[in-house]
């Protein structure tokens, strides 16, 4: 869907998909949320993403109002970081639910799950919702804690 085609009535599902579609957008939003900000070069070191794709995904997320680009001109070279907007913050619980649903579906269908999925999503909400699957994959961030299944 073209980025400027929202002058006509649009299906809400299409608009939502437009905002989060792209191989890296949901990962980028999670990174910004987790660390409170995202710096371009730091992200390039951590994610296997090209400079061009990261730049494009960040630009689109800014255009859609999910993140904002902040430039600190007092430094040389200017320091650039990206932070979530209120709209981006509102989207996070939805992305979390989608992530949990996705892992459960993959597990049920015996689709291999990258164990990094458990490392980067280890807050209480993910531990409570996915503890049974994490244990099945041998991931245990804290052996002393017992978790329920899919609370």
Question: What key attributes describe this structure?
Answer:
single chain; 151 residues; mainly alpha; two-stranded antiparallel ribbon; 2 strands
Strand order of the largest sheet: 1-2
- Report the total helices: 7
Number of β-strand runs: 2
Beta fraction of the residues?
5-15%
Task: Show unreliable segments.
Answer: 143-151
Ends apart, CA distance between termini: 37 Å
Helix and strand element order: HHHHEEHHH
Q: What would you note in describing this structure?
A:
By secondary structure, the protein is mainly α. It has a two-stranded antiparallel sheet with strand order 1-2. It is globular, with a radius of gyration of 18 Å. Strand 1 (67-72) and strand 2 (79-84) form a beta hairpin. It is built from 7 helices and 2 strands.
Set out the fold topology.
Layout: H1 12-20, H2 25-35, H3 40-46, H4 51-63, E1 67-72, E2 79-84, H5 86-108, H6 116-120, H7 124-136
Antiparallel strand pairs: 1-2
In short:
The protein is mainly alpha-helical and 151 residues long.
